[in-house]
Structure formats: C-alpha cells, structure tokens
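To: structure desk
From: M.T.
Subject: fold request, one chain
Message: Could you run this one when you get a chance? Sequence is below, nothing fancy, just the single chain.
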Amino acid sequence: MPRTTRARRTAALVATLGLSVSALAACGGDDTSSEDGPVLRVGVQKDGIRAVLDAAGLLDDLDYEIEWAEFTSGPPIVEAASADQIDVAWVGSAPPIIGAASSANFKVVAAVQERDSHENSILVTGDSDIKDVADLKGKRVAVGRGTSAHGLLARALDRVGLTFDDIDANYLAPADGFAAFTSGAVDAWVVWDPFVTQAVQEEGAVAITGGRPDEFGTQFEIASTEALEDPETRELVADFVDRLSQGLAWAVENPEEWGEAWATESGLPASTTTVVAAQKASDVIPVSDEIIAQTQELADLFHELGELPEKIDFASIVEPGLID
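Reply: Done. Structure tokens follow.
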C-alpha cells in the first residue's frame, strides 16, 4: 500500500483505542503536505517527546510531516503499531512483552535507558501503614495492566515472596489510578513519571520502592513491521529515532527548558514537569544482549505469575541495525 495512503488510516484508531490525534505537524518546507509528501505517524503519551524535540529545534528542518497520536499508556501504543496505525513510538519495558504474547506485528528497534534506572514507583499515602512491598499483602493496588508499572509490581512482589494472588489488583489507566489513589479507593498506586512526581507534590504520596532491584529503567522504541519493511518509512523511522537521541542529549543540558515545554504540551504544572525533566536523563542505545536478558526475565516472570498465556522469546521481536 502506498505510504501516503497508509498514513491516512491513523484517525480510524481513535474510536477503538480512545486516543487523540494531534494536528501538530512538522514540515521542512512550504510545499510539503500530508497529501503529497512523506508522513511519519508517531505514537506518544504525556511523555514530553514532542516537547523535547520542539524545544531542541529538531523539528525545524524535517522534510517529512509528523502525525502525532496520543495514547494513555504503552499497551494501546503496541496494539496500534501492530495494526499498522502508527509507525514508531516510545513505550516502557513491559508493553512489548505483552504485545509479543499476542503475536503483535511490530519490532523493538532501540532502547531508551534512564540513567537513574528508575522508571516507576509504588506509591502510598503519607499516613499509610504500608511501609514496604511485603505490606501490600491483602491491599488494593492500582496499576495499568501490561504497563511498565505492571512489570515493576510483578518483580517487587516476587522479590518478597508474593504474587498477584496476594493482592487486590485494580487495573486502571493513569487518570483513573490517580483518582482511585486520591479518593482512598485503593491503598497503593504503581505508576511512572510525571504522574509519580505529581502525586508526591499534590497529594504527599510516598514511594516505598522503585528502580533497582525491581526494574532497570529500560524503555523501548518500537516500530510497526510494515513501516520497517517499507524502505522510505524505515528511513523516516531511523531519522526520527536519531532526532530523539539528539533531543534527549540536549535535555540533559537543558532540563528546565524541556520541563517548561513539557508543561505546555501536557497541561501538567511546570512545577511538576521541570522536576521530572531534571531527573530523567536518558540515552537512546542499541538493544544489547544484557537488555534482552533482563527483559526476558520479566517475560518469564509474567508467564510464571499467570499474566501471560504463553512464554515469549523477546529476542525474536528485536530488530537490530536501525541505530548504531
């Protein structure tokens, strides 16, 4: 199917996955348009990706258009990539595992490594009697199913000898999880930034764990298989991932500027996003054997805990060679 025709199908996913498609387009010249020029369809969350690229000036010289599609979390992004409704996106550590178990039609093309190895946190209220992971036994815990937070929770429970059968898991998207947490409908909430920092600042939330040894701060750039098989689109994906790498390097030196732009993009307070931007120094790197092994361990744990219907081979969904 011609590349410009496939690009028009993004809007069809709005109703089925509950996402919003942004009209933010970045074109390299006045003659480039979605009707006659190349288009790259990029999935995002409230992750600051658009903001960092824009603030770093990396959207100024594009010779293709970007169609941005916003999602609530990683699992629907993987679903969209598998359905060839987006070309490339950034997701957490667990969504590709869940997608692979569903025979999803996508590939992992790069890793995004957070330098502090801290992707998620398990939050409780300031006056909670829950002081560590073992105290979650019998408690109501909000978490997004199939998200990186789900992965952190699985590893943390396993570390203290618990399983999902020992807690009352409430599978909620971030907005619903925040509402349940602040209303007292759940006892703990497992989520990622900027929602962690928002809950700490606005609600006095306390993190009982996060980062190592329960996670490694490794996230992934994924691309639809069809996008990678189309030579033109593959080049656009590679260019976008390279620009993201440049953007994250710029953000390390300019966290406050990124945070301010992130606030404008997301609607979150700048007091939240500037704190997160200062903490989230990250690098785009190839998917190493070590990363594959770490992710495979999580996939095996998900299967052991009954969260996956079958075992998966994570290495089989990795597409090497897109970045150096």
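Reply (cont.): The chain has two domains: 3-115+217-317, 120-209. Let me know if you need anything else for the meeting.
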